[in-house]
Amino acid sequence: MFGIGRKDRHGRQVRIEHRGRYTRASRTGGVALRAEKKVGPVNLTANTSKGLRASARVSKGLRVALQNGRFQLIGRWQKGPVGFNLSKTGVSASARNRMGSFNFLKPQYSSFRFAGVQLRGRKAATLQLVYLMILAVIFLARFSVFVLWALTLPVMFVWDFLTGLVEGARTEELCDEGTRTG
User: Fold this and answer.
1) Contact at 8 Å (CB) between 78 and 84?
2) Looking at 20-29, 53-62, 99-108, which range is the least confident one?
3) Where are the beta strands (DSSP E) in the chain?
4) Alpha-carbon gap, residue 166 to 169, rounded angstroms
5) For a Cys staple, 110 with which of 2, 5, 42, 124, CB 3.0–4.6 Å?
6) Is residue 76 within 8 Å of 89, Cβ to Cβ?
7) pLDDT of residue 4
8) pLDDT more than 90, % of the chain
9) What is the mean pLDDT of residues 72-80?
């Protein structure tokens, strides 16, 4: 009921909250009542904590809204772990990983979670950079081992081919000497 025991795709506890059809109760947001109605292409929402909102979808991932008389432009696109967000105040690009997310354009919106402790802001951005550097070093080490292996294969093939030729020639030479002396 409150999300206790429910896990996200990374196996971590989701928010502790209640989401009903007309109600939402959370630890940080409090309790709110809401009602939604779709009128043609426009969604109308009345919320006790957010006010009135009219929104419409412009294209996939992009919507415009009017909330309490303020214009909102919201675009969210995600492909794999990288996400791109658009709003009237600007754009941001972020990447999600097992430890949280790193925002490339606005590092103050990054998050980092380790051992159940979640950090946000500049400290989280610094830890995310350290984590990403460690991942990059591991990737480069694995990639260099692969490249080294891939480069040694042709050398070993040529070496094996040449030693086989030499051994074959030596064996044939010994056989020829044995037939001449015998």
Assistant:
1) yes
2) 20-29
3) 17-19, 23-26, 30-39, 42-47, 51-59, 62-67, 70-79, 82-87, 90-97, 100-103, 111-114, 117-120
4) 5
5) 124
6) no
7) 59
8) 31
9) 88
Average pLDDT of span 7-31: 74
**Per-position b or e across 94-112, b if 16+ CB within 10 A of its CB:** bbbeebbbbbeeebebbbb
The residue assigned the tokens 């109600």 is 23
Q: Report the C-alpha gap between 38 and 55 in whole angstroms.
A: 10
Alpha-carbon distance of 27 to 3, in angstroms, equals: 12
What token pair was written down for 163? 């030693």
The domain segmentation of the chain, as residue ranges, is 1-75, 80-182
Report d(CA 4, CA 18) in Å as an integer: 10
- List, for residues 116-132, the tens digit of each pLDDT value: 888 999 999 999 999 99
